[in-house]
Amino acid sequence: MQVYNTLKRRKEEFIPLKPGKVDMYVCGVTVYDYCHLGHARAYIVFDMIRRYLLHKGYRVNYVQNFTDIDDKIIRKAAESGQSYQEISEKFIQEYFADFNRLGIMPATSYPRATEHIADIIRLIEKLLAKKHAYAAGGDIYYDVRSFPAYGKLSGRRLGDNEAGARAAANADKKDPLDFALWKAAKPGEPSWPSPWGQGRPGWHIECSCMSMQQFGASFDIHGGGQDLIFPHHENEIAQSEGATGQPYVKYWLHNGFVNINDEKMSKSLGNFFAIRDILQKYDAEVLRFFILSTHYRSPINFSEEQLDEAQKGLDKLYKTAGAVAATPHELKPDYSEYEKEFTQFMDDDFNSAGAIGVLFKLAKFCSGEILGRKTLRDLGGVLGLLQNKERNRPAANNIPPEISELAEQRAAAKKNKDFALADRLRAEILAGGYNIKDTPQGFVINKI
Length: 448
Description:
Elements: E1 2-5, E2 10-13, E3 21-26, H1 37-55, E4 59-64, H2 71-80, H3 84-101, H4 117-129, E5 133-136, E6 139-142, H5 161-166, E7 179-184, E8 199-201, H6 203-215, E9 219-225, H7 229-244, E10 249-255, E11 258-260, E12 263-264, H8 275-278, H9 284-292, E13 300-302, H10 304-322, H11 336-347, H12 352-366, H13 370-382, H14 389-392, H15 401-415, H16 419-431, E14 434-439, E15 442-447
Parallel strand pairs: 3-4, 3-9, 9-10, 11-13
Antiparallel strand pairs: 1-2, 5-6, 6-7, 7-8, 11-12, 14-15
Helix pairs in contact: 2-3, 4-6, 6-7, 9-10, 10-12, 10-13, 11-12, 12-13, 15-16
């Protein structure tokens, strides 16, 4: 299996640090507002990657944090007259409401920044002791020039004017790129005691601390959107490796941007879509199908026309997944080639777009044959698709769901050589007014 490693700027063979086990950390949301389409893409993508690793037989420890203290949360709390805890808890619950609908598997754990304040302080103390950090103006900053490898993820050099222009000007800092590890408390803001006085952690140090608390100094996969490569992930590397002297992450994976009608999604442009708004018009699985129909590293262009096409494509797959073959194949079908091709695409840097193309080829070939339908659903399940049991029920000839369910149970009984049960189920189907005929490719149901 090959994965594209942002750190090396090339595809590499995937070999986890511990055989058979994958430790995976994905940057979570800052919980001050409803989640948007960019969040949907990121978490659907890494859910797909996690599902495929599980399919390959790996044990996956999947961690996704919540940033529950931040300038934006504090500002939202002040505007609403609520506490920062009330704001963060509200939007954590809204996160789960949105992503449960999108079929995102629950993470192994969801650490929160405020649960790790003492750990963060200890990590900052270690960076101070190793001369990677310094105090200035009541704050603690990371000294980027103390870490010679700074820029290895993003490709930026310390002297780049562009990089310097992006850094906030602050006369207390040695270098414009130096970033805050600890921020001194401001009047009326939440704060915690520390050796440097009341304050709160910076954003970057939180993820370094939470990931290393979960996995130790080094782990396999760190994921997030391309917008996090610099400065967030670059800073995580500097902090973590500066503190431990060990390689922080083996494989860095980043999903591409979301464009809206060929323009980058942005609140300032007014083309910003909350997930819940999209799901008022479209089924959640349609959004998932749409996102996975593009390779995760490529930009994706969102429009209602694109979602309408995704709806049609998903409906076509469900029609086959739930159909009963009207005419049997002349020869016993072999679906192993489709499974092999699906695996080849997914082994090539999680190419879900290619894998979905295989699902359409399989659907066209199998024409509702029972084993073909099962193979289609099984492969779709690797992507988190085609698992809606109601939509999966055979619908040909307007067969009632309860009759189709009896037919599926009978097929399973015959496979298990429980012929007495199969005969009883056949009698129930006949009593319901339907006949069932066995073929080499499965059963066909017709109204009597």
